[in-house]
Amino acid sequence: xxxxxxxxxLANFVTPSSGGLRTALVALGKGYRAAxxxxxxxxxxxxxxxxxxxxGRVITLPGPELPGTGGYRVLAGRRRLREVxxxxxxxxxxxxxxxxxxxxxxxxxxxxxxxxxxxxxTADGVLRTWGLPEAVAARTADRLNRRTAWAYSRIVxxxxxxxxxxxxxxAQNVVRAPLGVDLHRCRPGRRSTVLRAKHAAxxxxxxxxxxxxSVEKRPGMALDALAELRERGVRAALVVAGExxxxxxxxxxxxxxxxxxxxxxxxxxxxxxxxxxAAADLCLAPGPAETxxxxxxxxxxxxxxxxxxxxxxxxxxxxDAGAAALDTAEAFADAVQExxxxxxxDRRAAARARAELFDWNRSVSAFLAAHDASQxxxxxxxxxxxx
Length: 387
Hints:
This protein is an alpha/beta fold. The protein is 40% helix and 19% strand. Helix 9 (247-256) links the parallel strand 10 and strand 11.
């Protein structure tokens, strides 16, 4: 039996209103604990704190807020972070930020600590969404990825799609570890016709967007698709659950164009989010740089098919339980109508069946394998690792 390891995890761009990254951090931390290891998460915040949680020890260090990001902060104080790392003396280092924290991989290398960088987004994909030409984005990403692959012992990618940019540069230390979904919280039985009727407000089709409202997520495509569907005579309505710097502009646009879109802001309660995902007829995932798409997977687990950007990794995740669309309003509207043409019971059953292929226990095992860390004890069977 192997001994317990202290796995210190670093993450930027995590706030109380964060979506997929925060969910993954919690689920993996709980899974590491269940397997008998000692996870310690370090994240930025406004004040320093140190507390014990269900996902293990969580240390918050003061970090500046990035303008225009809707509250995202970064661990900018290298000296303080280095002091904390040296005090913790990790057995393994896991980093969920490939930009401002890349120096920690070099720190781990100097201290002979095995390290892992988790690729939660593609570098060239994010650069493209911020307006860089494709060729420039690819060259810039290649330079960044070469340095990243050198700095860390291993690079963890959650999908084959995310792995491609590292394969392109010939990186030899890339491993695959998919994320998972809470199949108990996210289940078709949550579907409520009353909740659906409330949000549809007389519309025939209820669409849902669960996303951070920021440039790289392309939330405006949901409004584009809604407008196109309405133009075609489809009585559709949209509910948006999420917060971000684009919310004001999106809200004004919906009001100006008289689009039936309701913006709920950040929905903190995960049970409420699952109820929304189950009540919707279809969920939209327009982000072109998504490397996995936890929100989309949660929707599938609730029995709700997904229309996703064909430019992202989501077609690999959703399989035939959804539809992939080019990044145009017309293509998204076509995909919506294609899915709606399938019998409702069939499309919802296919969505749930696809989600059941993803399990947090399996994900935790894959991440531990990336750390060369065995399970000290087995998690209880049948319980899973709830996020």
